[in-house]
Design brief:
The complex is a heterodimer of chains A (1064) and B (364).
Chain A lengths: L8 E5 L11 H15 L3 E5 L15 E3 L5 H11 L3 E3 L4 H13 L2 H4 L3 E2 L4 H8 L1 H11 L6 E4 L2 H11 L3 E5 L9 E3 L2 H14 L5 E5 L5 E9 L5 E9 L12 E3 L6 H18 L3 E9 L6 E7 L4 H10 L3 H9 L26 E7 L20 E7 L2 H11 L10 H4 L3 H7 L7 H10 L4 H8 L3 H19 L4 H9 L4 H8 L3 H11 L4 E4 L13 E5 L13 E5 L11 H15 L3 E6 L14 E4 L4 H11 L3 E3 L4 H13 L9 H8 L1 H11 L6 E4 L2 H11 L3 E5 L9 E3 L2 H10 L9 E5 L4 E10 L3 E12 L9 E3 L6 H17 L3 E11 L2 E8 L6 H8 L3 H9 L12 E2 L6 E7 L20 E7 L2 H11 L9 E5 L5 H13 L3 E4 L1 H9 L5 E2 L5 H9 L3 E6 L10 H11 L4 E2 L2 H16 L8 H4 L1
Parallel strand pairs in A: 1-2, 1-4, 2-3, 4-5, 18-21, 19-20, 19-22, 20-21, 28-32, 35-36, 35-38, 36-37, 38-39
Antiparallel strand pairs in A: 6-9, 7-8, 7-9, 10-11, 10-13, 11-12, 12-15, 13-14, 15-16, 17-18, 23-26, 24-25, 24-26, 27-28, 27-30, 28-29, 29-33, 30-31, 33-34
Helix pairs in contact in A: 1-11, 5-6, 7-8, 14-15, 15-17, 16-17, 17-18, 21-30, 24-25, 26-27, 31-36, 32-36, 34-35
Chain B lengths: L1 E6 L4 E8 L3 E9 L5 H5 L7 E5 L3 E2 L18 E3 L2 E2 L12 H7 L3 E4 L3 H11 L2 E6 L5 H9 L6 H5 L5 E3 L6 E6 L5 H9 L2 E6 L5 H6 L4 E4 L10 H10 L5 E4 L1 H10 L3 E17 L5 E12 L1 H9 L8 E6 L5 E6 L4 E4 L14 H8 L5
Parallel strand pairs in B: 3-4, 4-6, 5-7, 6-8, 11-12, 11-13, 13-14, 14-19
Antiparallel strand pairs in B: 1-2, 1-9, 2-8, 3-9, 10-12, 15-16, 15-17, 17-18, 18-19
Helix pairs in contact in B: 8-9
The chains are: A alpha/beta (1064), B alpha/beta (364).
């Protein structure tokens, strides 16, 4: 069937900011969808508030709106664009919810917009527990014993009928938000509370627990012709009980017999047909490990994280095909993009094993609860491909970029057998290492299976790895043993460590036996048909399939899994680097391991290697390809960290030299450089003992900024105000050593300014400067940021530019660099220089319309800035004002302190764009999900340092008609200042919780005394506000910005929501 | 123990032996199913063939007592990337290795099966020799001298007639066993048929005397043109009673009608083959295992001759390579399909074929 001729213009809604449970996979899906629709000759209009995405690039859609995903903004855009169709199923739960709201508000009807693809009825039927269960019963698909409840009381009663343990699943949430498994009445009440709160419709499903069953997923597609196929099935290594987003997942399923595989396949097809889904859908099932009994857990009637994984695992672009189905095409009419010979209506056959491991943020939040359950905590994931399970698993482990280069984890090696038996009871992020260590300690596969319910098949495979570890340690390293270890995926460093051989010896044996990996293609069809797709993975096998072209080529190192501090923006940069390289007529090759991203889409680069970003794997690719050079400056810290290792192996790193990168990262060298250049920086010392720390702080004067050296995203950074706090910090800091000192720096209370520049050794181009709303002490990734600066003098800007140019020249920077300054009393200090692409590159590229990555690539390949289109120096700003707002995932990480500190915690960002600063600010807050109330209670809980400044805000809010509540100490202070307020006791958190729930308290202002201590009142209060979505501020600057936005909101001036170009 | 495989084109593959020891000759084919090795091993259509699985990990769920498509292992040899030495499944009664040993079938693992698959794809189905002995000149000679047996159907067919299902079933279907998969019999039984399974060389008279509602020609191994008995038998019953066919049976019916068949370069073997039903426009995924196909042009030419063949048409096509997947001729009461609606292994999508066929018989 051809596409519907009545549809000419389609609106695509993106998924907004990255949060836990909704990450880069929707940039991938949205980008694919837009490209796919345009391929069919349709005009595409895209709305998304997230500026770090590739989908919001001008070349992806015909018109791009970086505007908040609110009904008001969408109504404006729909009115203006008058699209015939709306595609709601590719923007995650956010996009879907937006479509539902637009429909409920009557806007779709008003403007005659048709929902394309899966109908809202189908979506509701799949997402509303009650109607879904009804449908399952009608078609005879098994579901667990369960009841739907709308209140705690109903829930408690239902649990008596179903029995404990019992699963709580809220309706209409993402990533299992607010869900959990309750073991008893008490825990049920608690979980129910959160669950009801998080459900969009205050509805929760209580369900019989099938914990311990196999968890299996099927990715299904269906077209309007009722053709339905499976793209890929997946098996969770962790049995039911851990959220699939937090599970290690393999594709295809490994332990299912043909009968079981097809029984569940048939069930999935039956469900998608009954729901009449037109597009992609994910079906989750639980299979009893000792019978044919199974139940349907849930259905996602849209493109999801799993479908991104399935797309990469199978080589089948689900989002692209889903978009085509939505506009009326049928599966058998769409060509298979990989083989070009077959059609989209066939089921991919894999001839390799795919392993996905989630990336959790616990390395940053070492105090957070690391246990895993039904609520997702991972920020990202890695995927690995190989022809054995062992190697696929080990590659994935290495891709996590942890300290581990295999399945050995130092902190577990010390444990006893008994301790390991206890640890097996805990499901946490180190589970895979725990399994291996338990086997090493002689705990049998049966015993481990008994405790963990993990299928013995997986445990046997892990045991194979452990056995080879033993052999490596016990036997002389022979060619046979090395070969065995390599095939199993052991890294060289692991082989060297275990066998106590030098790299030279291992390398000699390898050379003698010619033991190098070959590369095989991911082709959707297990080699049945000839394919041209340049999508490869390494494996120790016989036949090399990799075709090396004779063209000049450049390898771009990707940024690996999404994590706090290194997000989707680096994928944006990597993809743009690839495009720039292609435009310059050079073959582009990307190496990356993140299945969620656009960069690992097989039609982005000329060649894609799905590999760990581990030096050995990267170097193997380089050895094969012999590129002109390797680009590390776009792949975040991951790629930068590889640079010295590449250089020491004789690889040409293009752009800024590795030595310059080292100057910027090495404290002593950097200090010396700034001294020579006469550029001030905060005073600071690297200390290796408590006494040194105390002395340094005394010398500098409190407050001081303390942090460990060499970190991403300000991990463990803190402002300390007293010796007591300082000593506490140093004592808690792990392993102080000469190699890893602690840095004690002067804390300069001022305004932070951030510059992204492109340099070519002669001059610099600065497309724009950004100013932070929050004063120093809040991590740049967590601050509101405005372009262009609003409070900085011209003189300061000149100084900033001057320093930037001096540093760029001194470091001989070629390509992108980012510098963070702090300005106090017109005095400019340098805090940090990153000679690489930064988090703000996508934003600045979009708001200034300067293709920064492309220019950087041109410069890297030898062009002079002066000869290029945008010239040199600081480009003038326009009428446009853009405010970046950080977005946090505290609701998922309940025990992470919500207070803003120098340690980055946000997972995503949105951009507010307007020609008026106040409106841009309002849009930023709206885009980030803040609500505005005109009346109600504002709760103040201030520490001593914050009382004075807090009081001014309290007065202001009281004058605006808000009722001020305050904790006892704060109330006394406010009373003294003559600000009317009501005291609330600190010991009655429940009362405050009730008030927040009822939306009586509409705002919380809290300046933390300590932070990170979950037992303290302030910690609980902040996190309560986050859970209940009450706007909550721990920094007065953010509060002031919020008040400004609130006042703008109250003016009720007409807002416009236009593409960026309109505001220039 | 080492095992070696030599292909007709000179390709030599080495790996570890499992299962039995010895030397076998056969035609090497690949199957792309990611599960279903037990069904594949016991499918008589694989008789005379050495099968390699494109999925690298084989034997994961071991062998159970029920997923057999016939009463013995039918393949000549089995080549995989990695044999699961420790399987895990609640129904598992023995390992794949034990099973092949017990059935005296050679297996080999540690092979780059993707390379092997590509060889077969590029050069077409080839003969091979698989041995646990050191490869010598005599093995080469054996391979050169080898040709696929022309009487392969006779080797796998039932020896005598047997009846299954209740005597009072609403319908009685004759099933000519050319290498019958158990799944076909089970599907017919599940559709309330009494089934009389005949050996491949059954006399027409015996079938006539059985008072049947329809006659189904089963799947089976080899070149359909070698199955002369069956072709003649199909010719004798076309037009006299509803005649159905699956896989080899489908090819045999086509030949009996006067259409032609040809050998595919490397065949269709797997669980993921898309088939479009020309009546509904629906596409479904089918299980397939065949090395020969019916020539579509010859079918069209036949249909053009008119008479009882006027309504002859292709009912199903393969979406990937547009080969013939199904035929019907209403005037003759003939329906046949190239794919395996009974699955085993593979998707259940085509079970409806049996409902349609049996449904077309009307009430008795």
């Amino acid at each position: 069937m051809p596409i519907d001729p009545s549809i000419k213009k389609v609106l695509v809604i993106g998924s907004g900011p990255i949060i836990i449970g909704q990450a880069a996979e929707f940039d991938y899906a949205g980008t694919q969808a837009c490209k796919s629709l345009r391929e069919e000759g349709l005009e595409v209009v895209l709305v998304n508030s997230n500026p770090a995405t590739i989908m919001t690039d001008d070349n992806i859609a015909d018109r791009v709106y970086i505007q908040p995903l609110t009904v008001e903004a969408l109504r404006y855009i729909i009115d203006k664009e008058r699209p015939e169709g709306l595609l709601p199923t590719l923007g995650g739960q956010t996009g879907l919810n937006m479509a539902v709201e637009l429909n409920e508000a009557g806007i779709l009807e008003e403007f005659n917009v048709r929902l394309l693809g899966t109908s809202l009825e189908a979506i509701k039927q799949a997402e509303d527990r009650d109607s879904f269960r009804q449908l399952m019963m009608e078609i005879g698909e098994p579901i667990p014993l369960s009841e739907i409840v709308n209140s705690i009381q109903e829930g408690m009663a239902a649990a008596e009928r179903i029995g404990y343990p019992i699963i709580v699943r809220p309706a209409y949430t993402l990533g299992g938000l607010g869900g959990g498994i309750a073991k008893d009445r008490e825990s049920l009440e608690e979980i129910l509370h959160a669950g009801l709160m998080h459900s969009r419709i205050n509805q929760v499903l209580l369900e019989q627990s099938v914990a311990g069953w196999k968890e299996i997923e099927y990715e299904v597609m269906r077209d309007k012709n009722d053709t339905a196929i499976i793209i890929c099935n997946m098996e969770n290594l962790d049995p039911v009980g851990v959220h699939t987003g937090d599970s290690i997942v393999v594709a295809p399923s490994q332990t299912l017999s043909d009968e079981e595989y097809h029984m569940l396949r048939t069930s999935s097809l039956k469900i998608i047909k009954a729901l009449k889904i037109e597009g992609g859908c994910n079906v989750q099932l639980a299979l009893n490990p000792s019978s044919r009994e199974y139940i349907v857990i849930e259905v996602n009637p849209r493109v999801s994280r799993s479908s991104a994984l399935a797309s990469k695992a199978a080589g089948y672009p689900i989002a692209k095909i889903a978009a085509k189905i939505a506009v009326g095409l049928c599966l058998h009419e769409i060509p298979n993009a990989v083989t070009k010979r077959t059609k989209a209506s066939f089921e991919p056959a894999l001839d390799y094993v795919v392993t996905k491991i989630p990336k959790w943020p616990f390395d940053k939040f070492d105090y957070a609860n690391r246990t895993l359950g039904t609520q997702m905590k991972a920020t990202g994931e890695v995927m690995a491909i190989d022809r054995t399970f062992e190697s696929s698993l080990l590659k994935a482990v290495i891709s996590l970029e942890g300290k581990e280069t295999g399945l050995r984890k130092a902190n577990l090696e010390e444990k006893t057998r008994e301790e390991m038996l206890d640890m097996l009871q805990i499901v946490d992020d180190q589970r895979i290492f725990t399994l291996a260590e338990s086997l090493r300690k002689g705990i049998s596969v049966e015993e481990i299976h008994g405790i963990t319910r993990i299928d013995p098949w997986f445990l046997e495979k892990i045991n194979n790895i452990v056995e080879v570890e033993h052999r490596l340690a016990a036997e002389p390293l022979s060619g046979e043993l090395l070969n065995k270890a390599e095939r199993m995926g052991f890294t060289d460093v692991e082989i060297e460590a275990l066998s106590e051989n030098s790299n030279e010896i291992v390398d000699t044996i390898r050379r003698a036996h010619g033991m190098y990996p070959v590369y095989k293609m991911v082709d959707t069809c297990a080699a049945e048909f000839e394919s041209q797709t340049p999508y490869y993975y390494s494996t120790f096998e016989t036949e090399e399939e990799n075709v090396i072209s004779k063209r000049e080529k450049i390898i771009v190192i990707g940024s690996g899994p999404i994590r706090i501090g290194q997000g989707i923006e680096f994928d944006y940069c990597s993809v743009h680097a690839v495009w720039a390289i292609q435009e310059l007529g050079i073959e582009s090759i990307i190496i990356n391991n993140n299945p969620e991203t656009v960069s690992t889409d097989f039609d982005i680069s000329d060649k894609l290697y799905f590999e760990p970003l581990f030096i050995e794997d990267v170097f193997n690719v380089i050895r094969k390809e012999m590129p002109k050079g390797v680009i590390v400056q776009f792949g975040g810290q991951t790629a930068i960290n590889l640079a010295p290792k590449l250089v020491s192996r004789g690889v040409q790193v293009l752009g800024t030299s590795v030595d310059s990168i080292d100057v910027a990262e090495d404290r002593k060298r950097f200090e010396r450089l700034l001294r020579e250049l006469g550029i001030p920086q905060p005073k600071g010392y690297a200390v290796t003992s408590i006494q040194e720390a105390v002395d340094a702080a005394d010398e500098i004067g409190y407050p001081v900024l303390v942090r460990p050296s060499y970190v991403i995203g300000g991990r463990g950074m803190m402002v300390v105000h007293s010796e007591q706090e300082l000593v506490g910090y140093v004592e808690e800091a792990a392993a102080l050593s000469d190699e890893y000192p602690i840095l004690v720096d002067e804390y300069i209370n001022g305004t932070e300014v951030e510059v992204d520049a492109i340099a070519d050794r002669e001059s610099i181009l600065v497309p724009g400067i950004m100013e932070h709303i929050e004063r120093t002490g809040v991590h740049s990734g967590d601050s509101f940021t405005v372009y262009p600066p609003q409070t900085i003098s011209e003189k300061t800007v000149e100084t900033v530019l001057d320093y930037t140019e001096k540093i760029a020249k001194a470091l001989q920077v070629i390509g992108l660099m980012n510098i963070q300054f702090v300005v106090r009393d017109e005095q400019v200090y340098i805090i940090e220089v990153n000679p690489r692409a930064s988090r703000t590159v996508p934003i600045l590229s979009k708001v200034t319309r300067v293709p920064m990555v492309k220019i950087a690539m041109q410069v890297i390949l030898g062009d002079r800035l002066a000869d290029l289109e945008y010239g040199t120096g600081l480009l003038p700003s326009t009428n446009l004002v853009a405010v970046k707002a950080p977005v946090f995932s505290f609701v998922k990480l309940v025990d992470v302190d919500a207070a803003l500190t120098p340690e980055m915690k946000s997972t995503g960002e949105v951009l507010g764009v307007d020609s008026c600063y106040e409106k841009a600010m309002l849009k930023a807050f709206q885009g980030a999900g803040y609500s505005f109330r005109e009346e109600g209670k504002v709760l103040f809980a201030l520490d001593n340092r914050g009382k004075e400044e807090g009081a001014a805000h309290a007065r202001h809010l009281a004058e605006r008609g808000f009722e001020i509540l305050a904790t006892p100490g704060t109330a006394t202070y406010l009373g003294l200042k003559g600000i009317p307020c009501r005291t609330v006791p600190k010991d009655n958190l429940t009362q405050l919780q009730e008030m927040m729930k009822k939306r009586e308290i509409v705002l919380l202002v809290n300046s933390p005394t300590r932070g990170k201590d979950p037992t303290r009142f302030g910690f609980k209060l902040r996190n309560l506000a986050e859970q209940l979505k009450v706007p909550s501020f721990t920094c007065f600057d953010t509060l002031a910005a919020y008040c400004m936005a609130m006042e703008t909101h109250q003016k009720r001036e007409p807002m416009d929501y236009e593409p960026i170009a309109t505001y220039l | 123990m080492k095992a070696t495989m030599l292909l007709e084109d000179g390709t030599r593959l080495e790996g570890q032996a499992f299962g039995a020891e010895g030397t076998v000759l056969g035609e090497v084919v690949f199957n792309t199913g990611m599960t279903g090795y037990q069904e594949i091993l016991t499918d008589p259509s694989y008789a005379g063939q050495v099968v390699t699985m494109t999925y690298p990990l084989v034997g994961n769920y071991g062998i159970n007592g029920k997923d057999m498509e016939s009463d013995r292992v039918q393949v000549s040899g089995f080549v995989v990337k990695e044999l699961a030495r420790v399987p895990s499944h609640w129904e598992c009664t023995e390992t794949l290795d034990q099973y092949l040993k017990r059935n005296n079938i050679l297996g080999m693992d540690g092979v780059d099966t993707r390379m092997l698959t590509k060889r077969i794809r590029n050069k077409g189905t080839m003969n091979c020799i698989l041995t646990t002995e050191p490869l010598e000149e005599r093995h080469r000679k054996m391979l050169e001298a080898y040709s696929f047996p022309k009487d392969i159907v006779a080797r796998v067919s039932a020896r005598e007639t047997r009846t299954y299902g209740p005597p009072d079933a609403p319908w009685a279907v004759g099933l000519v066993d050319l290498g019958l998969k158990r799944g076909i019999l089970e599907q017919l039984l599940a559709h309330s048929c009494r089934v009389v399974v005949f050996p491949h060389d059954v006399q027409a008279r015996e079938i006539e005397e059985a008072a049947l509602d329809a006659l189904l020609f089963s799947n089976g191994p080899g070149d359909p043109k070698d199955a002369r008995n069956a072709i003649a038998l199909a010719g004798a019953f076309l037009g006299k009673m509803p005649v159905w066919g699956i896989c080899l049976g489908h090819q045999i019916i086509a030949l009996a009608l006067g259409a032609d068949t040809y050998k595919l370069k490397f065949g269709h073997r797997g669980s993921n083959h898309p088939v479009i039903d020309m009546e509904t426009g629906n596409v479904f995924i089918s299980s397939q295992n065949h090395g020969y196909a019916v020539d579509g042009a010859s079918v069209e030419a036949l249909a053009a001759t008119g008479g009882p063949l006027e309504g002859l048409r292709v009912t199903h096509w393969n979406v990937n390579d547009e080969t013939v997947e199904g035929l019907s001729c209403p005037a003759l009461g003939m329906r046949c399909v190239q794919f395996h609606p009974e699955e085993g292994p593979g998707p259940h999508d085509a079970h409806h074929i049996f409902s349609h066929w049996v449904g077309s018989l009307g009430r008795r």
